[in-house]
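Progress against Task 2.4 (sequence-to-structure conversion) is shown through the following example record, which the project officer requested during the mid-term review.
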Amino acid sequence: MPSRTTRLSDKAALPFKTSNKQRRQDLHVKQKRARDALKRAERFSRKKEEAKNPRLREERLRRNVPVTLDKKRVYDEIADEPEDGGLGMVYDVERLKRRKLAEEQELQQDGYAGEDVAELEEDDDDHDSMLEESSDDESDSDENDLEPADLDEDTQDPLPSKYQLNSSTSCLKDRATSPTRSTTSTNLSLAPAALAAKFPTLFLSPDSPPPPPPKILITTSINSTLHNEATILTTLFPNSKYIRRSSHRYGYKFSVREISAFAAKHGYTSVIVLEENQKKPSGMTVVHLPVGPTFHFTISNWYSGKQIPGHGRPTDHVPELILNNFTTPLGLVTAHLFRSLFPATPELQGRQVLTLHNQRDYIFLRRHRYIFRAKRETERSVVGADGKEMRGTEGIRAGLQELGPRMTLKLRRVDKGIQRASGQDWEWKAKMEKKRTKFQL
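Structure tokens generated for the chain above:
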């Protein structure tokens, strides 16, 4: 308990209004010291009680779940997938398909239960049926006990199985949920069928042959000075080439539509136009060839590799691609666009990884080089979602070194086809959203 000298008096809590500025400052300092002393004494007393009873700490941590905007995120209420793909609607594709999967499993269980009851009514005199039911239950339990590693690749489903759903819910009963979904990777195989039909060049069917390696043409806006930044982008996207845009006063000013037609004839798969504002990168337009669509992003917080402390030098290896937290139909379209800019088979020798992390409709782009090393004595062990140590990672740690560039992207518009000078039709356009808890990606 705090001493009597550190307790707040009745007068100290009153909002005194005095004309003496020095007295007001002294009173504010005394009140702040007294409050800090009370909080410190309360914290130390709670630690003593939790040291005697560890369950008190577990209960406090279970209740202490921070409420963030990601925790309050809301979606549109949708019963079935929209016929047009739902590009302008905000709903979780994976959650909708998981709910349908759970409903189908419940219907199957109800059907099996009805069949078992009918068989029992018909065969009341047959006592050996109990053995048959027990064998069926054992086979069902064996199927449920199979882990994903024991299943074949052909029988695996992109959605979690019944065993995974039950195991995940049982593991998370004693532990509070994470406040954010920062480590949720995007499942690209859960795209709606209508959305895949609208963008056939982005959503490739599993039966189709592997796509050709990407070939990217990078350019800038007219009269741009971002030559170094555009050259940096050539190191970020593999198999890309930077061509300067004509800025001579008597030269012909090629439009993005003409550049895209030229690039499509020469075998390019994408065109990236880097835009400038006050000699800094302010936007990026990505045209998916040969017929579009066109994505418009704004760029903020641009940092080259030289501006990052302790940066490394990138190599020519193809990086691995990590896409995090793209859950809505618009998010899946954006994720497939970034996937089309990189080869389908990355080179794991260079140990380079490119991360595109979506958080509140802001896409954070980072590039690192990783290395596996031994665990140090001062480091903690890796803990999973269930609060237990992960198997196989007891003595291994991963060291990261950022390579750059570093930027933050914001999707503003998705155009139909390749953009024109005016009167462009768009698939999706950012609007002034009144709800701060609704995110588009």
